[in-house]
Write the structure tokens for this entry.
Amino acid sequence: MRAVAVAWRRRARYHGAVPLRVDEQPYPVIASVIDPRSETYRAHEQANRAAAEKLAAALREATVGGGDKYNQRHLAACKLLPRQRVELLLDRDSYFLELCPLAGKDVPGHVPGASLIGGIGRVSGVECVISASESTVKGGAMSELSVWKSTRLAEIAEANRLPSISMIESAGADLPNQSKIFVPGGRGFRELTRRSAERVPTICLVFGSSTAGGAYIPGMSDYTVMVKQQAQVYLAGPPLVKMATGEDSGHEELGGAEMHSQISGVSDYLAEDERDALRLGREIVAHLGYRKAAAPLPRQVLPPRYPAEDLLGIVAPDIKTPFDAREVIARIVDDSRFSEFKPSFGSTLVCGWAHLAGFPVGILANNGILFSESAQKGAQFIELCNQQDTPLLFLQNITGFMVGKRYEQEGIIKHGAKLINAVSNSTVPAITVMIGASFGAGNYAMCGRAYAPRFLFTWPNHRIGVMGGKQLAGVLDIIQREAAAKRGEPVDEQRLAVGKAMVEGQIDRESDPYFATARLWDDGIIDPRDTRTVLSIALSAAYTAPVRGTTSWGVFRH
């Protein structure tokens, strides 16, 4: 079986909105012109299949925790592995969309996944943000990347109003790196209480140690479950208490599950064992009666007319090679139907309406560099989608805005600013998938990470940066030559060539999708063939919160 891009999830098909009746389909069907027999298609398919296999291998690596030695030690202590805890918490045959699964990959001092499992799954019929300490890696100690990932999961829970379930077994902060953790780590406690204040439930299941600052996670959660003879929650363990006060105390009397359940009241439920804790977690979610705040109009959900497998042959592995975004849209939206907006104006930005798993979406997809016309078209389209309370889907493959004397005089800056203004102030849910290049201000205009999309995923061919390595090295070459001319000095061609090669190599490394995802610039690299499934889950999660557009915008320069 092909390893799916959603790093680790239940084997289930996600159907999206429940079809209640067969509606008429007024949108036209996209007519694909792809020839699977062409040499170009076959070359793309071969390269993209290899990239997908590389991704699958990286995702498998991220599921092994601390490795066989520490996993066996964990099992020998009669404990469930962290991923088993997630599996048993989820509804039977449900899904788990793992988020940021490769955070920390190839970053010195870190492991893939950043010692924290996190994602979205259904528990007692309710979509929840689920996190679990990877307790087989340094006892689940939190690094600075663990904190970043935890913060990102909290952002997703808040923006989409999803209940959160934290499964804790952690040695706390990775003390040798405390200077990188202490200040940002405190934000997690603040956000936990803020979600509670906004009536977004927070649940904590404690399977082992949760000490020092980590004790505030169960202390500040709405509901806390502790496992008998395993959970240990205290601000200071026995050695530190002895050193600070001279008092002798044992782990159980100081912070054991029974003490907190019977005496301190920090624990709300005492679980007999780990499976009982998971049962109690499911029971808590069941009694919440949590409901979605929005729902699309019921409609028949039809799969695309073209196979997702085609995406491997359509999309160029080299970002310099263009491809038609409509061919991508045709393979992810319902029945391959798409109502295009202003098709003859600003043609390098494809805009239009479709449905995906029954959810309405307004799609903005790059079909070339952004000109003034395409920027104006995109801004107007975003205004229309906000007027209709329609979520936005950005398919980003952009090298930036057009430059040059003519375009500057035509006002490319002010027109680009209109699009960025619209993206910045839009209030409907936005989801971004980077299906190719993401350079310069094009990243901003197409709702990059800094513009707070609800979710942001990338494909393995993705590249990101201020500009490409060759372009940046070339710019520096021109600048250095001009500087030498001003000083009246000859150019050292050998030194300049070495410098250019070093800069180009650096930029190429830093624009690699694995470099980006390791640093949480996105929510995960996905196999192109899984795009529809991933977007279905993301849209469903977004509809847990109210879906409301705005008519308030910043000043548009005309």
Observations:
- DSSP finds 20 helices and 15 strands in the chain.
- Residues 39-61 form the longest helix (23 residues).
- The longest strand covers residues 202-211.
